[in-house]
Amino acid sequence: MQKNKLILILGLALLILSCSKGKKLESKGFAVSEVAEDEEGKPIDGLKTDTLKFETRPRNVLLTANPNHRLTPVYKVNYTKKTKKPFTGSNSFHTNWSEYGESKGNQWNHNYMPGFEAVYGYNFVNVSHYNHQTKIENKFFKKPVLVKTLYYPAFSKDTLNDVPITRKFHMISVYDEDTNKDGFINVKDLRRFYYFDINGENKRPLVPKNFSVMSSEYDPANDFMYVFAKLDQNENGKIENNEETQIFWIDLNTPEEKGVQYQNK
Predict the structure, then answer these.
(1) Is the pLDDT of residue 166 over 60?
(2) How far is CA 197 from CA 56, 76, 172, in A?
């Protein structure tokens, strides 16, 4: 009897383990070179690294502060290993529950920073911008990237220190290059941080490309964003714990104004 119970328990444990493995998502990121098929169904081993062709789908429409500008997150289509059914990631939002953001003269509507909503998701690979005035659609990136966080002008009516806050630009942190040359664009590469104007154009770096963004903080007294980033000191395209951390400041009123808050000397 005892033996039968033990066998039953072991069997249930193995069943649970196998189910959990089947449900586990693939490693976050995508291959730079993927296996494709030609017209006859024969496998082609690897696409050129400058193509990054795979199936994508739009998720929903993000409402920005300006009614003429609407954004659509674009996700890579994934397939479950067992059933081969397609699925995409979904939007999640960073929030801020700071008491200061709900104090007199401050209404941040729990946004990560006043005037900015911050969205992220699994295998989030591009952002589509549509201008209702010009009827023109454009993508932020010409090729797929792995988006960590998109900051966009909040639809909510936010205030900071008794002043209404309306942002007129976007910021986005992404993995956009196979910097460590392992054949994948994923979280092991350097994470870049970019500015885009209200039309999702005129991209420029907010942090130098030889750094990898780690985290950020917000300064409500100055309306500054502080970005913590590690310097790729040995230029191997990845970040080690012993590499130097610097802090960059960005003036969110005038994002052209930015500089170094802290560095090792």
Answers:
(1) yes
(2) 24, 25, 11
